[in-house]
Specification:
about 325 residues, Jelly Rolls, 5-stranded antiparallel sheet, 3-stranded antiparallel sheet, 10 helices, about 15% strand, globular
Length: about 325
C-alpha cells in the first residue's frame, strides 16, 4: 500500500475511521485544547498600524513575499505544538491537529493583514496543510517549487489576488528547515509562471536565493508564483519545525478553486473534519492508488467532505 505524497499512510487512517469521526476522542486525546464552535465575536486580532500594513504590501509587491514579526501569544504557540505532537504520537497525520480550536483562533490574529491585502471580504480556499519537520538529518521541507495552482492570480496593478499563508508554530531556522525563496525581482522566469502552471526555475543565480528564518508566532505570505522550498534539517537543530499553511483569495472575485470559506463565520467539528479530509484527498495519491484499500478510504474521505457543500461558498 503506497504512501501519500506528503508521507501519509493509508493503513493508519483506515484502522482509525471510527475514532476520527468521534469528537469525544479528540477532546480526550488532547484535553488541554478545546474542540468547539468557538464564539467568533470573541476572537482576537493583532493590532497593526497603517505604516506596517503598507510595508507588508510594498514588500510583497517588490519581492513576492513578506514576513511579520511575532504576533501570536506564546501560550497559543505552545498549545498548537502540543496538539501537533500529540496527534502525531497517536499515529495520525499531523494534518488532523486542525481539529482543535487554537489553529483557527491563531489565524484570526492576522485578519487585519488579510483585509489590507485582499479586502474586507477575503475568503479562504479550503486547502490546508500542517508541517512537522523532524530535527534530524533526514528531515526536510517540500522540494523547490512554485505553488502554481491558479493562473493569473495577479491583478492589473501587479498585486496578488491569491496568497499562500504560512504560520510558524515555533521558530523556523536553517537547522530545522526554514524557508528559502527566490525573490521575484531576481527570478528571470517569474513572469512566465503567471500564465504557465508548469513553469520551473532554471535560470537564477544561487547568490540570489534568500534564506528566510522566522520566529514562532509569525505569518509568512507569498504569491502563487514565488519559487521557494523548505531546506534540509539537521540533527543539530534544537527542535523540530512546526507550521501550517493555507490559501486566501480576494472576496470580490469568483472563487479560483471549487470552493471558498469564511473562517470568521466559525467552523464546527464536522466542517473541520471535512477540511482535513479534503486536504488528504487533494494532496495524496489516494485517487490513483489501485490497492484494494483505496476505494474504502476514498469513500471515507468523500463522505466527510460532503458537509462542506452546505457550508462553503461553491463556485457558480
Amino acid at each position: 500500500m503506497p504512501d501519500f505524497k506528503k508521507h501519509l499512510s493509508l493503513r493508519e487512517l483506515l484502522i482509525a475511521k471510527d475514532q476520527i469521526e468521534d469528537i469525544h476522542y479528540w477532546r480526550k486525546l488532547c484535553p488541554n485544547a478545546s474542540v468547539s464552535d468557538f464564539a467568533v465575536d470573541r476572537l482576537k486580532t493583532a493590532k497593526i498600524d497603517a505604516a506596517q500594513l503598507a510595508d507588508y504590501q510594498s514588500f510583497m509587491q517588490d519581492e513576492g513575499y513578506f514576513q511579520t514579526v511575532p504576533m501570536l501569544p506564546v501560550a497559543m504557540q505552545t498549545q498548537m505544538l502540543e496538539c501537533i505532537e500529540t496527534v502525531k504520537m497517536a499515529g495520525f497525520p499531523v494534518l488532523f491537529a486542525l481539529i482543535y480550536d487554537v489553529f483557527y483562533e491563531a489565524f484570526n490574529y492576522f485578519d487585519p493583514i488579510m483585509k489590507h491585502l485582499l479586502g474586507d471580504d477575503y475568503t479562504m480556499i479550503p486547502n490546508f496543510w500542517v508541517y512537522y519537520i523532524e530535527a534530524s538529518n533526514d528531515g526536510k521541507g517540500f522540494e523547490p517549487h512554485r505553488d502554481l495552482e491558479y493562473l493569473h492570480a495577479i491583478d492589473a496593478d501587479g498585486k496578488p489576488t491569491v496568497l499562500t499563508l504560512w504560520i510558524t508554530v515555533n521558530d523556523s531556522t536553517p537547522l530545522n528547515s526554514c524557508m528559502y525563496v527566490l525573490p521575484k525581482h531576481r527570478d528571470p522566469e517569474y513572469h512566465l509562471a503567471i500564465s504557465d502552471l508548469k513553469q520551473g526555475a532554471t535560470k537564477f543565480k544561487l547568490e540570489d536565493v534568500r534564506a528566510v528564518p522566522i520566529a514562532g508566532g509569525c505569518l509568512s505570505a507569498w504569491d502563487q508564483y514565488l519559487y521557494h522550498w523548505g531546506s534540509r534539517s539537521s540533527k543539530y537543530a534544537s527542535a523540530p519545525r512546526a507550521s501550517y499553511a493555507m490559501y486566501c483569495q480576494r472576496g470580490d472575485m469568483k472563487p479560483v478553486d471549487d470552493a471558498s470559506i469564511d473562517l470568521r463565520e466559525g467552523v464546527d467539528f464536522k466542517q473541520r473534519l471535512g477540511l482535513i479530509c479534503r486536504g488528504v484527498y487533494r494532496y495524496s495519491y489516494v485517487k490513483s492508488d489501485a490497492s484494494q484499500k483505496s476505494p474504502e478510504l476514498l469513500a471515507f474521505l468523500e463522505n466527510n467532505m460532503k458537509v462542506l457543500k452546505n457550508h462553503v461558498h461553491q463556485l457558480v
